[in-house]
Amino acid sequence: MPAPGVLGRSSNRTLGLVAVAIPTCVWATGSVIVKWSTLSGLHFAMFRLWAGAVISCAALLVTRRRLSWSTIRTCAFGGVLFATDIALHFSAVKRTSVANVAVIGSLAPVVIAIVSTRLLHEKVARRDAVLAAIAFAGVLVVAIGTSDDAGASLAGDVLAVLNIGTWTSYWFFSRHARATTGPIEYFACVMLAGALFMTPVAIWIDGVPTMPAAGDLVAVIAVAAFPGFIGHSLVIWSHAHVESWRAALITQATPVIATLLAFVFLGEPIAPIVIVGGAVVLSCTGAVIVHAARREASVADAVADAAVESPG
What is the H or E stretch that residue 182 is in? Predict the structure, then answer.
């Protein structure tokens, strides 16, 4: 008889990989939408956080969950980290090309992978490490191939670099908080704390915003609902089922997808070398996912067979 516990863990691992893969694609749309919007980066971040807070609180009501003071104390700092992260990201997108922001941001998964092996003592198979290195090389190819005509600027690139630190910090804080908090409760707390933190900051730096136009409101709600609530909730849930380094590596496909979307919808040029580098990133990331799935399936089958053969 198969070992239910082992098969369950294997199934959760597969679902966890899917839960990371979906946001990887959805997050790529966020930068393009923000770039298209007429709102400033900070004002977009402020409205996006409040929209996210409304969506998250609605999810709490629908699922009959609530936020306790204990949860708020545990998770509120995650809101500060997240608000700072998207403020830097949105501001960077407004000042430089989507491709530059996406490619520079792709260094964050590499940082997360390195920190994970030391901080969380997660083991990385040699084959996966080689694939990760090749994927990173593909990211560098994309960076080198980004055209100067795409509207790149040093200020925006610097903000994108700073964004690496805030995203990495938020990633590990979320992983720690998820040990005691459900994904919906955690994200609702993050949205509320982030909105309360970002509102005075946005008003102080960019002034009091006017009522957004209809198109900007649609953009804010779309980013809050899809890359925001759905994307982040899936990743937050995946923390309990997928190693940080593997999940981070999967998200390296985001810059490639974002670059393609920026070309199609914003007219940002793509050099042939970008296509080559993007293909390398996607193929290596896919290889890691397939390798992980096969390895987990082999382990589950081996343990299940052992359980069947066991006389007990």
Answer: none
Name the token pair of 44: 């977009």
CA distance 49 to 287: 35
Cα 220 → chain centroid: 17
All residues at 6 or more sequence positions from 147 whose CB lies less than 8 Å from its CB, including other chains:
269, 270, 271
**What are the tokens at 258?**
């974002």
Q: According to the model, what pLDDT value does residue 4 have?
A: 45
Q: Could you report the per-residue pLDDT of 82-141, keeping only the tens digit for each? A: 999 999 999 999 988 888 787 777 777 667 766 776 666 666 678 877 887 887 787 777
CA dist 270 and 278 (Å) reads: 11
On whether the CB atoms of residues 234 and 20 are closer than 8 A, the answer is yes
Domain-wise residue ranges, the chain: 4-309
Closest of 121, 100, 147 to residue 258, by C-alpha: 100
Tokens of 251: 């998200």
Decide if 108 contacts 168 (C-beta within 8 A): yes
pLDDT for residue 42: 97
Question: What pLDDT, in 10s, does the model give residues 224-252?
Answer: 999 888 887 888 788 778 876 677 777 77
Distance between CA atoms of residues 50 and 192, nearest Å:
7
Write out the H or E segment, with its range, that includes residue 175.
Answer: helix 154-177
